[in-house]
Amino acid sequence: MSAASSPSRLGRGDRLFLAAVIGLPLLALLVFVWLPALASIVLSFTTWDGIGLSGIHVTGIDNYRQIFTNYPPFWPAVWHNVLWLLFTALLPTPFGVFLAYQLDRKIRFTRVYQTAIFLPMVLSLAVVGFIWEIIYNPDTGLLNSLLSAAGSAHHIDWLGNPHLNLWAVLVASGWRHTGYIMILYLAGLRSFDPALKEAAALDGAGGRQTFFRIVLPALKPVNIIIVVVTVMESLRAFDIVYVLGGGTGSKPGMELLSLLITDNIIGESGHIGYGSALAVVLLLVSLAAIGTFLVQTFRKEDS
Amino acid sequence: MTQQSRTPLAAPGPGRRQVVGRLFGLGAAALAAPVLTACGGATAASDPKTVTFGSNGADATPKAAYAAVTEAFTAQSGLKVKTNTVDHDTFQKSITSYLQGTPDDVFTWFAGYRMQYFAKKGLCSPVDDVWEKIGDGFSEATKQLSRGADGTYYFVPLYTYPWAVFYRKSLFRERGYEVPRTWDQFVALAKRMKKDGLFPIASGYGGGDTWSVLGAFDYLNLRANGYDFHTSLMRGQVSFTDRRAARVLDLWRELTPYYQPSGGGRSWQDAAQTLLDKKSGMAVIGLFLGQQITDDAVRADIDFFPFPEVDPAHGQDTVEAPTDGFMLSRRPKNEEGAKKFLEFLGSARAEETYMRADPSNLAANEQAGTGSYNALQKKSAQLIESARHISQFADRDSDPGFVSTVLLPGLTEWLSHPDDGSATLKKIESQRSRFFTA
Fold it and tell me: What's the pTM value of the predicted model, to 2 decimals?
């Protein structure tokens, strides 16, 4: 049967059905995702207090100028987002891969370990936040209790000290992220052909060589997912900082772009335009990061 | 699985198209649901026998207290009150969209700039006719708090509570401490407490409790620079790099060595607990501290003194006493009933009903009976009566967005390493014009 005749196989009802099934979700996507995104971009060139449409005044690129030149928490927030990305990419992610690789080697109680390491991922980040809040409490928290039991007289303000609190939050988020990466990678390893490993062993490759030369390249699709997940999680980091910061917005030392957006938009006298401009900045950064990566990966695949 | 084995399995059950169709129908229903409920909500509430009431009193004590008040109103007027309770913080955060959507007829809110802002934006209705009936019960200062910038009434107050320096009487007696009246005495006392192994000033502004540092900030400014300067500063009319603002941080810096360490990670409740446990000597906090006390013997042992005098020209003439109450939404569905409800809420009887269930506040209505007041409440009432000026609280006297996104992060960051503060003040000043234009 030729390709040209295949559309005619669909009856009128089929076509209507297809149009509805594709068209309506598309409409929902447009209305609930792209329209708000476009509205944000438009609003980012205005000032608006969120009350009545007549309150919208166009101010051109004023918001952006303000944000880049005169908004004290902005550059710290950008830096914290970068730090978040670097930290997550350099510590919890490789550690998760490492754990997956170890657990894949049929060691005893591997199911128990898997469950234990994956457990934080089952909890929502907000709940993870509450757990770590208890650990970091300066008076009754686990960490300071252990320190004082070990004879240290130092009273460390884990979440209050602006030089320390971001790291405290990163540890908490890394704790969860490790399990996520582990399970993703473990799934990849399970589909990995063991014959390849055997062949490598026969050729005299060591454990490390096997991993870097054979396993890692063979698991490329999983690697892409892991990189994308890590970048996305770092850029959209919000809930755990929000919870550990007390649920009131950004705090000194813990500013993130996502928090600055809510700082300005949610609240009593919202600066919708200003917050939208921040959101657009975050959107561009995210698009640039993910876009470059995906384009590069798929270009290599095509060629 | 092969193609062959799949087909017979699928045949007896619902066809693929049917399943997709059903899922699709579900999806469409889910999309349509909010629209439908929004319509339903609008029509159902226009019953003339019902008044809707949006309440931020989600904690057990205020919730029970409001329930008692609405029940009393129903018994008196025959009108039903439909209460819609939302968590305190959530209520505050969503207030702007709440008031523009389909708000309840009557809703809880705060006196001061925060109320005037919404009045100016036309998001609430004037209640002058309600005040014609309830006006006798309130002092001039309270009346002033209830009016917008245009002189019209927009607010019906329910209760108030003062901020002060709290301490335990027995601790002061044991150690021979004396209540300080001036700043120098205050700092000297703190120094002595530190030598005695106490945390002189309980400190907990971690997590969502950063607002608690504003008590000290407001009082230092009020004492050193006076009420008028404080008001202009909070309304964005004066520069934060003004010498007088810098003086506030200078004074504060004298006190910070005596703050309980690690305050940035502690909740105010935990800090208050150290005061009750006699590990801390004093705490700059509001009367709501009482909600933390479960033991009546401890409650009887708690006392407070007004924040000490810095400049004799201003003495201790201002008391920070935030006032909570009610407002009428922009287009109430049952205006007549809502106004009747507000009249009732402003009456002495409603106040008494409320105070019976929530004794850590003071009635705003002067005609309300004070017989059930405990010693702290009585002393608080006296303190407020004797005040020449009553301030609300920084986040109520100022643009709340400015306070939460500029002033508070600046002050808490500074508190973690209190230097001369000029960099902090410059940062705050650079943002002022963004919040206070027009």
Answer: 0.83
